[in-house]
Design goal:
Four Helix Bundle (Hemerythrin (Met), subunit A), hydrogen ion transport, F/V-ATP_Csub_sf, transport, ATPase_proteolipid_csu, mainly alpha
Length: 149
């Protein structure tokens, strides 16, 4: 259960930080250029997706834990150390990568949308940077899915 909790908690901390930090940038940019607020909400959405990665892995890990099996009146635990460490590593993989990606999206999203409010030609560059930051969380999700099988 440690892996499931690490996946959910760390990924959602990253998502919350990214959402909050990028949301502050969108609010500040909205004062300068209110017509561009909906276009520049992308970092907030991308940060929210990171939390979904953590949720997917935590549900997958928690559902893979079986109840002890009873043989000859003795309960035998089918969830061994090897599986426990694999699940913990999977949870840490998606959780820590989600934390890092959320931080990156928050920082880039905060300053990026403010600058796009001043110069709209920076929008494509901002989106590319955000995509590469989101890819870090996606890599963590892929590793976690491989480890959990």
């Amino acid at each position: 259960m440690g892996g499931a909790s690490m996946a959910l908690v760390l990924a959602n901390v990253g998502a919350a930080y990214g959402t909050a930090k990028a949301g502050v940038g969108v609010a500040a940019m909205g004062v300068m250029s209110p017509e561009a607020v909906m276009k520049n909400i992308i970092p907030v959405v991308m940060a929210g997706v990171i939390g979904i990665y953590g949720l997917i892995v935590s549900v997958l890990l928690a559902s893979g834990i079986d109840q002890p099996v009873e043989q000859d009146g003795v309960a035998i635990n089918v969830y061994g150390w090897d599986l426990g460490f694999k699940n913990f590593a999977a949870g840490l993989a998606v959780g820590v990568s989600g934390l890092g990606a959320g931080y990156a999206i928050g920082e880039v999203g905060d300053l990026g949308v403010k600058m796009v409010g001043l110069e709209s030609r920076l929008f494509v560059g901002l989106i590319l940077i955000l995509i590469f930051a989101e890819a870090v969380a996606l890599y963590g999700l892929i590793v976690a899915l491989i480890l959990s099988t």
